Amino acid sequence: MIPAVDRPVIHWMGGWVSSLACWEPQLIALFPEFAHRFLDTHALLDQDTPPDWIESTPRDAHAHIFAAWSLGSLRVHRWMADGVWPKDVPVLSLCPVFRFVQPGTPGTFGESILLRMEQKLGAERETVLRDFWRRMPKAGDMPPEWEAGWIAWTRHYDDASVLLALQYLRTQSADPEHLRSAPLQWELIAGEKDRLAPIGAWKEDLPAQARLTVHPGGHIPFWECPDLVGESLRRLAQPAGIGTP
Question: Which residues have CB under 8 Å from 178's CB, separation 6+?
């Protein structure tokens, strides 16, 4: 069981080849009022249920929040769809993914592109990953340490893990109309220009309790709209029913 703490804790669930530990210094500086823990989403992809400690996490004024980005959000949404996510554990879905492959949607990663990426991993792994970073929609010029942190973190994963996570993106989906255990406190922040997770594919089908905020940027909300992310985190840090309206 996770003990109660003296300030809210964000459990960050990162994306493909990118634990959000890659941006740990930036996230701590942006959200200093929180404690930060970093989960490896790759290690959770084959788990049919969330880790046991999530169910037993204390729900008090010093909340434990799950902030799931990109692939991490798809993993959490799959647990919701399977009815196994605890309703009283709050979630912030960042760049929400319900189905990564969007047939016929210009600018997205179609199944054929992902299959080519899978085939090129190994000998051309570095090229594949740098091309993915280049195509990740992001607003403005990011400081070089953001890209350097992402690239460096990709080297923590072996080829088998990179491939399995890419296959998960290609094959898994969660229909937002059928999320059977969406949390009572659930917020989503999506980018208007995010081609990796296009809003039009799912925004009309969200459960009634979901709170969606759309920002004008792309796929890196921590850089593009940290104020919006901070507002959501502070609301979710309050016990249900006491948060900022």
Answer: 81
